[in-house]
Design goal:
single chain; alpha+beta; Cytochrome-c3 Hydrogenase, chain B; 2 domains; 3-stranded antiparallel β-sheet; 8 strands; 43% helix
């Protein structure tokens, strides 16, 4: 929807000499909103754009459409009661919230998770990454008018959700990790069913490569578009695939191994051109890596042994005073929780650090300038932004 802004005092922006860059009075600029309900927006947020012709001159992020104060709500609940809340911070990949919250609690309380529980958590996180990447592949294709890809990849994602449902009883929100370990291990026959799903997903990914990545139109639209200078990686706090597409290794699984990732054999894909096409290649290859990692985990995971530490009644669980930060590598980059305790049965402060906070505010506002209006949707999807991580 296009509308001209009534309060033109917010614009224009200024040149260093004080002259106006954007002057809506001239009639040469248009005030345009993309979102919050728009197929080219990755959730309930919006971009406020000033365009001249089809070129973006100003890009501002607006959030607040789904804010529920997740962090503040957790301060008013016991640790076990925080799990149904924290998973809402990242709906497509809730398991990373479970892990980071539980791991901070365990570190502050001095709890050691049994080996089987560590392996089970590793499996759950890699399954979450795989279905998250499949969802993303459908998103980037849809942003560029290739809707059939999303039909294929969402089917593959549903196969992984079937396995989540088999383990946890839930397809989207699982809450299978608990302070001290996990609720249960995999059921009988799980490995065989998962292997069948992985073979089917591998075939889907071959079709995705032929239909999208090798597609001339897709390459024309994405090669050279949305370039991120490698010098911006540290300055803007860029992590995960967005950094790896610039040729810089940013992967918590490699740099700060956690759970059982140090016992797995894998190497994240690094790009060099740092555009939308390269970010697609990085995530496509990471999807293949996740398929392989799940197979490795299933072959190494013990079939017997304790998966939960001896824990007190969680409704009366108190943690000594302290603070800690735990990080993990989600499909978008570094995901972390900073937790502070005061000796009571409630957290004193919880802060969730998702990569969308930097990618979806400062970075896209920078990259959006001078972009073509037709490329804004693909640019946003290529950065893999989830609004709840910004609002939380």
């Amino acid at each position: 929807m296009i509308k001209f802004d009534e309060d033109r005092s917010r614009f224009p922006e200024k040149n260093p000499d004080g002259t106006n860059i954007i002057d809506l009075e001239s009639g040469r600029f248009t005030h345009l909103w993309q979102g919050p309900v728009h197929p080219g927006i990755t959730g309930n947020m919006s971009l406020e754009l000033i365009v001249q012709g089809d070129e973006v001159m100003s890009c501002k992020t607006h959030v607040g459409y789904l804010h529920r104060g997740f962090e503040k709500l957790m301060e008013r609940r016991r640790f076990i009661q925080c799990l149904p809340i924290c998973v809402r911070i990242c709906v497509p990949e809730p398991d990373f919230n479970e892990y980071c919250l539980c791991a901070t609690v365990e570190e502050l309380a001095g709890v050691e998770v049994p080996d089987a529980g560590q392996w089970m958590r590793t499996l759950l996180l890699e399954m979450a990454r795989l279905q998250g990447y499949l969802m993303w592949l459908g998103g980037i294709s849809g942003a560029l008018g290739m809707g059939i890809i999303g039909q294929w990849t969402n089917y593959g994602r549903d196969l992984i959700l079937d396995r989540f449902e088999e383990i946890t009883g839930g397809r989207v929100y699982h809450m299978h990790m608990m302070p001290g370990g996990v609720r249960s291990m995999t059921p009988d026959g799980f490995n065989q069913r998962m292997e069948e799903n992985l073979r089917e997903i591998s075939e889907i990914l071959k079709d995705v490569h032929k239909t999208m990545i090798e597609n001339t139109v897709f390459r024309t639209r994405t090669v050279g578009t949305g370039y991120i200078d490698p010098l911006m990686v540290n300055k803007y706090g860029i992590t995960g695939p967005n950094a790896r597409a610039a040729g810089i290794l940013r992967d918590v699984r490699i740099e700060y191994p956690y759970l059982r990732y140090g016992e797995l054999d894998f190497e994240p894909y690094l790009g060099k051109d740092s555009d939308i096409f390269t970010r697609t290649l990085v995530r496509y290859n990471d999807t293949l890596t996740s398929v392989d990692l799940i197979r490795q985990i299933m072959s190494k995971m013990p079939s017997k042994g304790p998966f939960m530490a001896d824990m007190p009644n969680m409704l009366h669980f108190k943690i000594p005073r302290g603070e800690t930060y735990i990080r993990a590598e989600c499909s978008r980059g570094e995901f972390g929780y900073y937790t502070v305790t005061d000796g009571s049965g409630y957290p004193r402060r919880i802060n969730a650090r998702g990569p969308s906070y930097t990618h979806g505010v400062s970075l896209i506002e920078k990259l959006g300038i001078n972009a073509n209006i037709a490329d804004v949707a693909a640019l946003m999807v290529s950065l893999h932004i989830y609004p709840p991580e910004i609002e939380r």
